[in-house]
Structure prediction request, 287 residues.
Amino acid sequence: MKIKNFIIVSLLIIILPLSLFGQEQKQLSDRGQVRERNPEDINDWRGKTVMVFAPHPDDDLSPAGTMAKLVENGNKVFIVVYTSGNKGSRDLEMTSERLAQIRKQEDIAANKILGIPEENIIWLGYDDGMLEYVPEKELCEKVCYLIRKYRPDAVFCHDAGTDWMQWHKTDHRMSAFITLDGARAAAYHLYFPHHRIYEDLQPFTVMDYFFWGSHEPNYNVDITDVIELKFEAACQHVSQFGKGNFKYTGPVMDTEDKENIRKRYMRKEPDGKMYERFRRLQGSRSF
Ligand SMILES: [Zn+2]
Prediction:
C-alpha cells in the first residue's frame, strides 16, 4: 500500500511540472508551433516592470494596448502623469480644479480596464500646458527618483526624436526630453546623491525605451487581441473626446461619441491586424 502511494506521489511530482511547462509553452505557440521565449520580444515578457511617462492623463492611451498585453502576461506597469490636464476643456462652465478631478477619475477608470490598479498611477500634478515653465532640475530629479525607486526594465514615453527636434505641444515636448534626462541621471550616483545617501536608492540604468508618436517607428506590437480593452479605456476620457470636451456631461460617454472612437480605434492594417508602433532604443549607451 505504501509503495503504491509512493509511486502515485512520485508520478504526480514528475507529471505536474511537465504539464505546467507544457501550458506555458502553449501560451507562446504561434500558429500551432511551439517556439522559444524571446527576451527581445515584448510579447514574451513575464514578471517585468514597465513605466509609462505621460504628459497628460490621456496620453497613456498611446501604448494602452501594449500595456494591456504586458499586464495580462504578469508584468507590472506604473504610469507617471506629469500634469493634471486641468486646461484641456472648451466647456466655458468648467473650472481647472473640477477638470483636474474629472480627468484623474477618467484615467483611473481607463487604466483599471487595462488591468493597471490606481495605486500604480503616480500623479506629479503640474499644471496643464505649463510643464516647460517648471524648473527643469526639479522635473529631472523627480523622474530620476522614480526610475531609481521602481527600476523599470523598460520606459515608455513620447518620442523626442533622434538627431532632430520633433514638434510636440508644450507638455509633450517637455515630457519627452525630461523623461530621458531624468532616466539618464538615474544611472549616475553623483546626480542627486541624496537619493542614495538618505533613501538607499541605488543608481539604475534603463536599458530599453519605447517611444510613441514617433516619425521613425521601428517596433510594432500587435494589439489586435486587446483592442476592445483599449477602445473601452479611451471611452473613459469623456471630458476629452467628442461633445464632452465642449460641454461635459460625463462620466458616461454618449453612444455617438463612442461610435466615433470605435471607428478611430478599429482601423485594421492590410494584414487584418492592429498595431501600436514605437521607436525602440536599447542599450545602456542608447542616448
Ligand atoms: Zn497630451
Q: What stands out?
A: Residues 14-26 have pLDDT under 50 and may be disordered. The beta strands are 49-54, 76-83, 121-126, 154-158, 208-212, 219-222, 275-282.
